[in-house]
Design goal:
Layout (H helix, E strand, L loop, with lengths): L2 H4 L3 E4 L5 E11 L4 E8 L6 E3 L5 E2 L3 E4 L10 H6 L10 E4 L4 E4 L2 E4 L6 E5 L5 E2 L3 E4 L3 E4 L3
Parallel strand pairs: 1-6, 7-13
Antiparallel strand pairs: 1-2, 2-3, 3-4, 5-6, 7-8, 9-10, 10-11, 12-13
Length: 143
Amino acid sequence: MLYTQVKGRKVVSTGTAETVGRVADLVIDPRSHTVVAVTVRGSGHGDTVLWSDITAFGTDAVTVPDGEVLKGANDAVKELSGTAHDVLGKRVLTTDGEQLGSVSDIDFDPQSGAVTVLVLPSGDIAGSRLVGVGPYAAIVHAA
């Protein structure tokens, strides 16, 4: 599933069938190469839902048990959040210093949250190569 396709997707409670917000962003942990949380806008409960609290990540909506799983970000999620850690649009450098281009999208597994591919205009990079994301660039292992 592509990152750009999930932004704005409804977050729906399976308990009440009500929309509790919309996906604003994905929080990615480059060390584990996974989506660890989803930030939500338009929620009256909080702004973050941990990946482990998501019931399903479907083509039409993200489902959660109820609005109570939306909370403020914990310290680990806060450390990985914010514009300095946004992957989309970041230039990509290898650990050898080679510039590969900029990230135009991210493909992830909607079941596990695993980042499978960094999509660049010059060609895809396996998500398992991701080392870190900072304010200047996303770093990947050299091929």
